[in-house]
UniProtKB/TrEMBL annotation, chain A:
Residues 37-66, 79-108 form the 4Fe-4S ferredoxin-type domain. GO terms for molecular function: 4 iron, 4 sulfur cluster binding; metal ion binding; NADH dehydrogenase activity. PANTHER family: NADH DEHYDROGENASE [UBIQUINONE] IRON-SULFUR PROTEIN 8, MITOCHONDRIAL (PTHR10849:SF20), NADH DEHYDROGENASE UBIQUINONE IRON-SULFUR PROTEIN 8, MITOCHONDRIAL (PTHR10849). NCBIfam families: PRK05888.2-1 (NF004540). It comes from the Bacteria. Its cofactor is [4Fe-4S] cluster. One of its GO terms (biological process) is aerobic respiration. This is NADH-quinone oxidoreductase subunit I. Pfam families: Fer4_7. PROSITE patterns: 4FE4S_FER_1 (PS00198), 4FE4S_FER_2 (PS51379). The lineage of its organism: Bacteria, Bacillati, Bacillota, Bacilli, Bacillales. GO terms for cellular component: membrane.
Automatic annotation (TrEMBL), chain B:
Belongs to the complex I 49 kDa subunit family. NDH-1 is composed of 14 different subunits. Subunits NuoB, C, D, E, F, and G constitute the peripheral sector of the complex. InterPro entries: NADH_Q_OxRdtase_suD, NDH1_su_D/H, NiFe-Hase_large. NDH-1 shuttles electrons from NADH, via FMN and iron-sulfur (Fe-S) centers, to quinones in the respiratory chain. The immediate electron acceptor for the enzyme in this species is believed to be a menaquinone. Couples the redox reaction to proton translocation (for every two electrons transferred, four hydrogen ions are translocated across the cytoplasmic membrane), and thus conserves the redox energy in a proton gradient. Keywords: Cell membrane, Membrane, NAD, Quinone, Translocase, Transport. Pfam families: Complex1_49kDa (PF00346). One of its GO terms (molecular function) is quinone binding. This is NADH-quinone oxidoreductase subunit D. It catalyses: a quinone + NADH + 5 H(+)(in) = a quinol + NAD(+) + 4 H(+)(out). Its EC number is 7.1.1.-.
Amino acid sequence: MLGLFKGLKYTLNQLTKEKVTYDYPNKPLPLPDRFRGIQKFYPEKCIVCNQCANICPTDCIQLTGKKHPDPTKKGKIIDTYDINFEICILCDLCTEVCPTEAIIMTNNFELAEYSRDMLFKNLEWLDENDENIRQVNKA
Amino acid sequence: MIRTEEMLLNMGPQHPSTHGVFRIILKIDGETIIEAKPVIGYLHRGTEKLAEDLQYTQIIPYTDRLDYISAMTNNYVLCHAVETMMGLEIPDRAEYLRVIAMELGRIVSHLVSWGTYLLDLGATTPFLYAFREREAIINLINELCGARLTFNYMRVGGVKWDAPEGWIEKVRDFIPYMREQLAGYHDLVSGNEIFLSRVKGVGKYTKEEAIQYSLSGPTLRCTGVKWDLRKDEPYSIYNRFDFDVVTRETGDCLSRYEVRLEEIEQSLRIVEQAVEQFPAEGEILAKVPKIIKAPKGEAFVRIESPRGEIGCYIASDGKKEPYRLKFRRPSFYNLQILPKLLKGENIANLIAILGAIDIVLGEVDG
């Protein structure tokens, strides 16, 4: 019986301890800066180098570019940019390879939707996702 | 004379005590198990086949999803295999970060195993305490690599992130706290008479049987075999740390429970020394080409994961993707002894025996 009482003593001692639960969703979860949430995309920074789409392990990024409207400038600008969050695993490799930091992670993680189609996020949506952006992006 | 009939009973694939989608077909006579047939594959994603089309860096997030309770060791074994093939030398600071992360992962894994094992046996309270401490560690790892479970932290040649400011101090402060809680765990459960009567002498096997079934990790060491790759085939920088290989002699469920709890203590010792020796500055990534190509040939490396020996075999034909990749997944091998252990046991003991093997279905199915 001694063992039972020893265990009970430990449990009773915990009564006075501070609560460890979070009041989510009433209060936002505290997350570190490095947290990998839904990406933010800067269309003006993108140079259409395709590296993010190539490194993506699940092939969830699709992008197209078009010629620069100003004929004096070389290179391409981004036309469409889609991420399929049905299969994106938020692994952070796209932001790691991006040479201009046009795509970066944010601390937003709430992706629940009523339909699967809604998980298909386009350029405008990713551009507007500009809260809680990660400050330091390269190690 | 009462005549009884044999009966087939399906346990799982949806069952809280199988810790995932695992099914056992039981042939029972009353409450005694005559034959048990495990059915696996419900979580099979074909990681090894998928890897053949992926660059080495792209495979790392997939390894997170094998043993998702302690993904750091999986990250490491793949990087270690590629590094071995390329003959890379890893900077010291990266190695220390890796060891700290892996040992914290080991503590998390054993905490989950401890908590859920007792939950299976009917004790709800320990689970909550285990997850409280797990949350503290996971928050530390989250600060380090930006994810709570699927870390994707290691890279071929080093790690992705350096430790953030003040992180090492936080880890240092966590160690005495965890030691205190660990003593509490022993008070709470280890001497509990009800718990002891459920696990003492249950699911016993001998040293020879353990080796025949190629068990590894706590399931091997509980029979008295002193075999730990961190000691016997030191990889990374484990030869710089002073720690003991925990063994027990009896080989029953209680001994496996004890080995795991004591390994938490040993992991804390390693983390303590690693934090002490942590280099003040240095590189976190070796000089590696942008596109990693393993030279033609093959390599097999193995390391000690919380569940046993995890191995990675790579056959490369010199391209940026492996020709063939194979993981030796410890949960899969440890599970093989289950039908033998269950024969002749009472149905109530099934949970106690399965829980003590401590499988993760992501790893069993691969």
